[in-house]
Amino acid sequence: MQTLHELATRLKQARRILVLTGAGISAESGIATFRDAQTGLWSRFRPEDLATPAAFQRDPALVWRWYAWRREQIAQAQPNAAHIALAELARRTSLTLVTQNVDDLHQRAGSTGVIALHGAIARTVCSVTGREISPVWLAANPGEPPRSPHHDRGLARPGVVWFGEELPAEALTAAQAAARGCDVVLAIGTSALVYPAAGLPALAQQHGAWFAEINPQPTPLTSAADLAIVQTAGYAMPAVLDAWENR
Q: Which one from 5, 106, 118, 150 is the annotated catalytic residue?
């Protein structure tokens, strides 16, 4: 409990906080982490073979069906205690929430202004222009995948960042600015294997921030953390809010 109280104290004293979340926080809502999401029909595929521009070019129907399956999983999931606690924390202090997750559980829990570095699985965009395709148009134009209304050679594709693609420039710039300007950076449920997102805590530390990690397993970031809390986010974050009340 002492570590949770220390984190609560640091958060309460901070002027600006950056929170980085990864797949671990959504796993507690029943959403399989990316590399664990291969079950049943999909068990013979590597995620990397379904989440690249080359894979989509090679077999767009296969990629479209896999993402439709993932969308169904996410639609059935609900925000957990950690999502809800972070939304509450943002109502108490100045907090920037950056997520590597493509689900919308943070938003459904009440968080606003979420910086989604890897895009959003609920969005659909044109494979050529990147312009968003409306759900109304998709409903009226079924296909696996449908043709894009924005370009004669385009197809509808998920609005996520695939391996080999650059992160949205505006989102990355905002996340890096938040890292440079925060007093406390908190990484929750991220494997710290995917860059540039995994580099945000180090960037924050370079600018004087205090760094805490919440993860039930050690990560490449653990040794650099000022405080490592070896707990699930669903346990730790509500406990931190309770400790906040007693600071």
A: 118
